[in-house]
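[recover] target loaded
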């Protein structure tokens, strides 16, 4: 679909681009919340009245008393005073209210565009998928928080990975919809070319690294072995396999998780460089091979800097956003190598444009 033919859907594209920006901000705020140890500061989920912070000292003390009942306070933060609690409360409060803001930004324009006839057929179905996916991400966020309120001082790294991956999937769904509107609808299934096949394998590799990034964050594994390229002078320190179980060592053990995350980064980088070199003359990628190279270089460098600075907060957040950037560039390649959808989809899109023009003329 050319830009001219997509012009009636420009407000929808702007709406979706705004959604991508808000999700990226949410990922950054979530990263700050995790890195500052703020994620368990609010121990209840109140969708409506929870949008307001404590309004006086009595309410602040009530919120602090609830925090004192969870393992994180009793095992880690017993030194904390009310002013310290207010600092960590801020980030979790911002994180949850940003989610509420996103709900409004996605739902209200969706209803308005629906009424104007701009959402129809596949675009309507996609819109519902985005809304349901966003709601699911919020529910998974609470599912993650609950894991740190009863027996453990930290949230489960598995639930953190699920929550983060769900947010990334919704981001990809929104971005793919933008690509569909601007360049014409394509299936996620490849078009049969070599680039299509290997770019989808590349997505699997990147997703594994993102999951291990979540494990690393959940276990605070980035704060140990802060040397590079070796782990305190060794490729694999003995403590990496201290549990004697590959599953526990590489998913539930800080040393093992960092070992996988830092070394799998080489696999991601080499795979991306190989893909870019193999497709350097592939005009169908529209420069995606070059963009992938720069994205993976930036992400690799951010990962190294984050490690050697013992996860300095700004670098930790940028590293998380770097993963989103790399995924976005890869999605660009996946869309350009996707299978063109049949004529029915084209007629559906034409109906949307016709309805939009009709509403303008009224």
């Amino acid at each position: 679909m050319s830009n001219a033919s997509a012009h009636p859907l420009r407000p929808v594209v702007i709406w979706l681009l705004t959604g991508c920006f808000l999700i990226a901000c949410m990922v950054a705020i979530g990263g700050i919340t995790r890195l500052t140890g703020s994620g368990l500061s609010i121990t209840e989920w109140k969708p409506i009245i929870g949008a307001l912070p404590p309004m006086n000292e009595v309410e602040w003390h009530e919120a602090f008393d609830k925090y004192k009942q969870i393992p994180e306070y009793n095992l880690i933060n017993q030194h904390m005073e009310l002013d310290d609690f207010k600092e960590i409360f801020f980030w979790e409060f911002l994180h949850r209210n940003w989610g509420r803001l996103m709900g409004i930004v996605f739902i209200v324009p969706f209803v308005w565009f629906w009424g104007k006839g701009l959402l129809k057929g596949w675009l309507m179905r996609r819109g519902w998928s985005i809304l349901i996916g966003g709601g699911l991400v919020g529910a998974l966020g609470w599912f993650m928080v609950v894991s740190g309120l009863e027996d453990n001082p930290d949230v489960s790294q598995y639930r953190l990975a699920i929550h983060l991956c769900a947010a990334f999937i919704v981001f990809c769904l929104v971005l793919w919809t933008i690509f569909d509107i601007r360049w014409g609808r394509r299936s996620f299934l490849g078009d049969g070319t070599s680039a299509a096949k290997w770019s989808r394998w590349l997505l699997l590799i990147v997703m594994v690294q993102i999951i291990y990034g979540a494990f690393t964050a959940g276990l605070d594994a980035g704060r140990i072995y802060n040397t590079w390229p070796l782990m305190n002078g060794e490729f694999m320190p003995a403590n990496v396999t201290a549990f004697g179980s590959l599953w526990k060592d590489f998913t539930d053990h800080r040393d093992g998780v960092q070992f996988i995350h830092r070394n799998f980064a080489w696999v991601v980088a080499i795979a991306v460089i190989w893909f870019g070199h193999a497709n350097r003359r592939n005009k169908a990628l529209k420069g995606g091979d070059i963009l992938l190279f720069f994205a993976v270089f930036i992400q690799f460098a951010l990962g190294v800097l984050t490690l050697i600075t013992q996860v300095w907060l700004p670098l930790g957040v940028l590293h998380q956003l770097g993963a989103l950037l790399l995924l976005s560039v890869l999605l660009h390649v996946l869309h350009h190598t996707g299978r063109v959808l049949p004529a029915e989809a084209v007629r559906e899109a034409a109906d949307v444009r016709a309805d939009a023009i009709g509403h303008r003329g009224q």
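[recover] notes: The chain has twelve helices and two strands.
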